[in-house]
Amino acid sequence: MAEETPPQLVDYFVVAGLTDSSKALEEESQQPRPARPSEPITDVAVIIRSQGETPPQGFTCIESSTSGHPVELNAGLLSSPQMYICYQRGRGKPPLIDLGVHCEGKDRLKPGYEIIHTTPYSRSANLSSGAPGHQRTFLTYRRAAESQGHNTLGITDICLVVPSKGESTPHTFCRVDRNLNAGMWGPAMFLCYKMAMSKANTLVYEAGLLSRYPEQDSESFPLPESVPIFCLPMGATIESWPVNTKYQLPVFSTFVLTGASGDKVYGAAIQFHEAYPRERLSDKQSLRLGLLSVVDRRPITSKSVQTRRSICILSHWPFFDVFHKFLMFIYRYSISGPHVLPLETHISHFMYNVPFPSPQRPRILVQMSPYDNLLLCQPVSSPLPLSGASFLTLLQNLGPENALTLLLAVLTEQKLLIHSLRPDVLTSVSEALVSMIFPLRWQCPYIPLCPLTLADVLCAPVPFIVGIHSSYFDLYDPPHDVICVDLDTNTIFQSEERKLLSPRSLPRRPCKVLLASLHAHFQQLDEMYNKAVEEASLEFLLTDYDLVYGRRKQLELEIQAAFLRFMACVLKGYRAFLLPITQAPSDTTHDSSSLFFLQGFLKSRDRACHKFYGQLLRTQLFTQFIEECSFASHRHAGLEFFDTCVDKVQVDLEKAEETPLVELDDSRGGEHTVFIMPPEEPAGPDGAELPARYCYDCFPVLRAELFERPLDQPTAPLCPAKSSAPSSPAPRRTKQEMKVAQRVAQKYSSVPDMWARCLLGHCYGLWFIYLPTYVRAAPSKARALQTAYEVLQQMESRKVVLPDEVCYRSLLQLCGQYGEPVLSVRVMLGMKRAGIVPNALTYAYYNKAVLESKWPSSTQGGRLRWAKLRNVVLGAAQFRQPLRQRQLESRAGGSLPESRGSRPRPSLQRQTTWAGQSLQEAAPGGQLVKSNSDGFPCSQPSAVEAGVAQMIKALGVLEPGSDSLVVLPPGLQQLLDGPGSSEDGSLSDVSFQTDESDRTALDGADVQPSLGLGRRDKNHHGQGGAPRRGLAAKLQQLLSPARRSSLRQAPEPREPQPRKSPVDSLLHPHERPDSTASESSVSLGSEFDLSDTSLSSFSLRKSSDLLPEASPGPELPPVEILLSSCSLCQTCGWLVHDEEVMAGWTPDDSNLNTACPFCAHPFVPVLSIEIQHVPQQPSPSEPPPAARGPVLSDRYQCLALDQAEPEPGTPLSLCNGCKDSAAARGPALRSELETFAYLSPLVLRKELESLLENEGSDFLAQPELVDSHPIIYWNLLWYFCRLGLPSKLLQLVLASRHVRPAPQAPAPDGPPVCVRLLWDVLTPDPDSCPPLYALWRGHRNRTAQMQPSALHHPGCPFSLAFLEAVLSHVGLGEVHKAIALFLETLAAQPRPPPLQRSVYREILFLVLAALGKEHVDIAAFDKKYKAAYSKLANSLGKEELRRQRVQPPSSKAIDCRRSFGATLEC
C-alpha cells in the first residue's frame, strides 16, 4: 500500500487589507453617530453640592440613573451631604481602564489603583461620611500606561443603576458590586462603566486580498474567498492619528471556517497598522479624517494617516499559540532590517520544512532566528474531536454558574451572541461551547468570529452561536430575542421575549456534581493565573516547560471531562431505546421517531426534568445524534468512546467517579526533540557573506520567485490513524476497543476459566478478521456467510469472552456487502440473546446492511398460496394412504394391485422462506413414511431410489475404486454398494427439515446433497418410475461434472460391518485406524483437500464430532504438515505443552514470552512445523487391513508381537503415532522442519491488524504471506485448525517455497494437504529417555528392521512389564501407585535417565496411546491424578514432588485445555 502523506502544518499564508476595489462599509457622506461618544473618560471626581461645590470645568455630573431616578449617593442618611459623581472626557492623558469602591480596613488596594480621597475643592470624598460607625469608603480608578498607543481600550461611559427601581446593568457595561449608599434607608445604588476602544476620524472598508502563498489552490482545500474579511472582521480602516502617537501593538485573533461537510479550518491572524500615503485619499476622505480644515480646506500637518492590515495563516490544526509566535516573528521581521534573506524565504521554510509532530518525534523546536524560536508539540491523542476550544478560557471569563447557564442554552438551541473586545478569546470560548455538548454536534449557524459584513446573521430566524467584537454595539443594537454574553464583564443578558429555562430543570445530581467540579477548577485557575508577575516569571524560569504545559493540559482535560460526565449522565441508557431496522426500509425509516423510542426515553427520566428533556428531544442536535448512532458516520470512534463513558458513570452519585473519563496520553511526552534550524543564508562567490539588501517600509506584497522550493521530508505515519470507516473492507478494532480489550485481559488473567475464554475469544476474533478473505474466495457467498453465523452460534454455546464486537461487526459488514439483510437481522438478534449492546460502529454496519441490501419480496401472490394448499392436500393424502393400503390388503389377502405402487408419491413442496428462497426439493423431511408398517417393508429399495442410483452410475460420477462424491444418504449409498442389510426404516431415520435446519441444508446442497426419496413396496420395486422433474433437475445440478473438482476425495467403499454394542467395545480390543492421528485430525476438521475451490464445502462441526467413517487405506496426501506447539524451556530443560504455554501467557499484547510452569522463568515458545512431501504412486489393489491398537487386555498379543516377525509391508508405528515412511509409503518422503515463535492470540491479533493496515486486506489471500510473514501465517493456521475453523490458508502453502509441485502431479487444482496437530514434540531429543508412550508403541510394533536404540535408550529403566503395571494401576483407579512405581523405578537407577516430560505427561500420554483417546476421559484422569498427588504429598512432601516434576497442571492450564478442546494427537 502507498504510504500516507504526512499532514501539512500550514495550508496558506494570506495578507489582507485595503485594496482598490474595497467597498466602504459606511457611506462617506454619512456623519458619525452622535449617540456614541468618541473620546474616552480620563478623570473621575466626587462633588458635595450641599457644600456649594459644582462640577469643575469640562466635567459632567451624573444626576440621574439610566431610567431617570435621582442618584444622590447618601440619600438614605439624615443630614447627609449631597454627593454626586462627575467625569471628564479627553485625549490629553491616558484613559481610565477600571473603576472600583474601596473600604478602608476591609479591602486591600489592588496594584495600579489610585484612591480619590478629596473632592476638587479639597473636602473629604468619603462616600459614607454621614453614616456614623461606617467604614470610610472611597472611589478608586486605574489609568492606562503612558506607553500604550493610540486607540487604547478604555472607559467610554459611566452610569448609576438602582435595582429596586427595576433597573439592571446596561448591555456591555461592567458593574462594581459594592453599594454606594451607605445609609440604612434609601435604595441600593451601583456604579457601572463601559469599556470600549474609542475611535475618532476612522473610515471603514471591506477587507480584500493583497497577496497569498501558494498562489494556486489546492485540490483538496481551495482558499475560501471570505478569508480577508475574517482576517479583519471589523473592516480595513483608514485612520488619522496625531503625529507623535505611538503605534499600537498588533492584535491577535483567531477564527474558524466550517465547510459543507463539517470540516473545520482554523485561522490565526494578527492585525497591525502601517502608514498610508495621503496622495491616495480623496477630498471627502481627507475631510472626514480631519486632515483638511472645514473652512478653507487647508491640509492639517499635525496628523498622520494609518491603515490596518492583517497577515494570516490557515491550517487544519488549531496550533494557535505556535501560529501567534510565527506571525509576530514575521511582523517584526518586516519592520526591521535590512536582511540577507527575504521575508518569503522564512514563510516557505516554515510551511514546508517544519515537519508535523508525530509519536516518533513528538516535539519540534523551530529556530526562526538567533533570538526567536517556537516549540511545536504533538496534539493530545484523545477520542474527543479536535478543536480550538480552551475550557480554561471559558471558565476564566464566565465562571461556574454562567458556564452552566450557557450549557443549558446550547442544549436547548438558543440564539447566542458572544462578544468581547479580545478577538482571540471569542474563538476559544465559542469552540468550548460547541465542544462541551459532546457527543451532540451543533447543527445551526456557527461563526466564532463574525465579520461586520456578515452581521445580518443575527437577524436569522434560526438558532445560532455567533461571536463578534464588542465595538459592533457602538454602531448597532443587538436583536431583542438574542442572549448576549459579555466575556469582558462576565454577564449574560436575556430579553423578556426569550427567557432560558432555569438550571434547576437539569438533572439534579449530575448538575450538582458538575457545578462542584467547576468551582474546584475555577479556584485552581485563580491560584494559577492571579499571581504577581515577578512570582510567575520566577516560577516559569525555575520549572520545566513540560511540567507547566502538562499541568495546564491536564487541567484543561479535567474541565472537559466534567462536562463529558454530565452529558453521559443526561443520555444514560439511550442505546436501550434505539429502534433497529428489522424489515425492508420505507419512506419513514430515517425519521427519528422510527429510529428512537422518544416517549420511552422521556418516561425513563425524572419527572422534574421532563421540561428540559422535552426541549432537548426536539432539537436538531438530538435528531442528528440519533441518525449518527443509527447510520454510518465518520464519528463512530467518538460515539464509541462516549458509550464507554456512559457505562462508567453513575447518575445517582453525589461526586464524580475516581476513574477519569479522559486521560492524558503519556505517549506524547517523549524525550525526542527535532531541531529545525533557520534557513541558511546564501554565500558569495568567494564564500563571503552577501550584503543585507531586503528592507521594507511596510508589509510587502509577496513575490513568488523569492519563495523556496519545498524540501523532501521523511515520511512517517503522522496522521492519526483512522479506524475503519463504515465502507472499509477490513474489520479493525477501534482504539477504544483495544483499550477495553487490554483491560479485560488484565482483569481475567488471574481468573483461570475466564483467561481461557478470553484467549478463545481472541482466536475467534482472528478468524473473523480473516472472514472477508474467506468469503471473497467462496463461490457461494450465502453459504460462507451462513458458516460464519454458525461459528457465532458455536461461540455462544462455548460461552466465549469477546473483548470487542469485531466478530459480529465483520459479519454484519459482509452481509451488507453481499446483500444478506435477513442474516443481518439474525446476527443482531444473536447479539441481543448474548446480552451484547452493539456500539456505534457495529450498529451503523447493521443499519447499513439492512438499508442498502435488497430485501426479498414480501408479496408472493398466488404462488405461495398454491404451495400451501398443495402441501396440505398432499399431507392429508399421505396420512390416509396407509389406512387405504391396509384395507386393500385385507380385501386382497395381503397383496396389493400392481397399479398402486407404479406411480411415484409426490413430495411436498417447500414453502417460500422468509429469506425469499422458493425451491422445490425432495428432502428427507418431504416424504411421510409409516414406520414398521406391513405395507412398507424397508428391506428393499424403492423404484425411485433404484432409478436415481442407475442415473448416478450412468453419469459416471462414482467410478470403481474412486470416491469423488460426498457422503450420500443411506438409501442411495446402499444401492451403489450393492444389496446388503438396511436400517429398520423407522421414522427416526426421516428428518423433517424446517426453518433453520432446512435453510442450512438448502444453502449447503451443492456440497452435501440430502436426497430424501420415498420408499416403494417390495412387491413392485421392479416397476420403473422416473422421478419428478424438480428432482431430476436437482440431481443434474448437484452431480454435474463441473462440480466434481470441488468435492472431497472420499474413501473407497467397504463391506458393511455389524454395529458393535458398548459391551463388545469393552470386552474386545478397540479397533483403531492406521494412525492415532487420523481420527483426531478429522474431528478437528483440519484435513483439507485443496482441489476444493468451494469454501462452502466446510461443514462446521464441534471438536468432538466425527466426520463420516472413512474406509481403511485411503490414498495418502502428497503434502502432510505436522504442527506442534510443545516447547522446550531453555532454563530447566523440561517440555512445556500447549495448555501450559497458554496458561503462562501475559495479557500484554506486545509480550511474546510465556512462563515455564516448572521454573517460572519466561521464555519464547515455538511452533514447530514439519512439511512432508510424499511422491504419488498408484494405490494398491488390496488395501492393508486396519491395525489394532493394543489395550490393557492385549498383554498376550503384545508379548506375541514382541516375539513374532512382522509381516512384509506392515507399517511401523513410531513416536507420535507416525508410520514408518519406508514401509508405509514405499518411496522415501522428503521432509522439511521449521520453527517459529508461538504467539499468544492477543499478540497475533495485534500483529495481524498491523499487517492488514500496511499491506491491505487482500494480502491474506496471496501466497507471499507464507514466505514474507511466516510467523503470522503458521500461527493463524495452527489456531484455525485447533478450533476447526474453515480457511483457505492451506492453498497458500502450495505456492510457497515449501512445496515444489512435481511435473507429474495429476491433480488439476493442486495436491491435497493434510494437517495434523501434535501434542508432543515433532523430533524427540536423542539424548533424553524416550517417553513411555513411544516405548509402548515400540514394543507393540517391534520389528527386525527397527534399530535397538529406538526402543532402548542407555539407562532407560522402563520395560514392557513396567508399562503394563502403570496401565494396570491407572485402570484400577490407583493413580498414586502408578506415580509411586514411576518414582521408585527412577530412584532404583544409579544414574537417573534424562527426562524432559513431567510424570503427569508420561502417564497421560501412555494411557492415551494404549487405550485410545476416545476411551479416555481426560477430565476424570485429571481429577484422579490430582487426588493421587495430594495423597502422595502427605507422605513425601510437595517440595519433593515438585522437584521430581510430579505436580499436576495448574487450574489455568486445565481450563485452557478444556476451552480449546483436547483435540491434539499424542
What does this structure look like?
This protein has 1466 residues and is α+β, with helices and mostly antiparallel strands. Helices cover 34% and strands 13% of the residues. It contains 42 helices and 33 strands. The strands form nine sheets. Strands 1, 11, 12, 13, 14, 15 and 16 form a seven-stranded antiparallel β-sheet that branches. It has a five-stranded mixed β-sheet with strand order 20-21-19-22-23, covered by helices on one side. It starts with 11 loop residues before the first strand and ends in a 6-residue tail after the last helix. About 22% of the residues have low confidence.
The quaternary structure here is: single chain
Average pLDDT works out at 75
Structural class: alpha+beta
Strand content: 5-15%
Low-confidence stretches: 28-35, 532-543, 713-729, 894-1114, 1179-1226, 1303-1310, 1343-1350
Helix content: 25-40%
Distance from first to last alpha carbon? 43 Å
Q: Biggest sheet, in brief? A: 7 strands, antiparallel
> How many DSSP-defined strands?
33
Rg from alpha-carbon coordinates = 44 Å
DSSP helical segment count: 42
- Principal-axes shape call: elongated
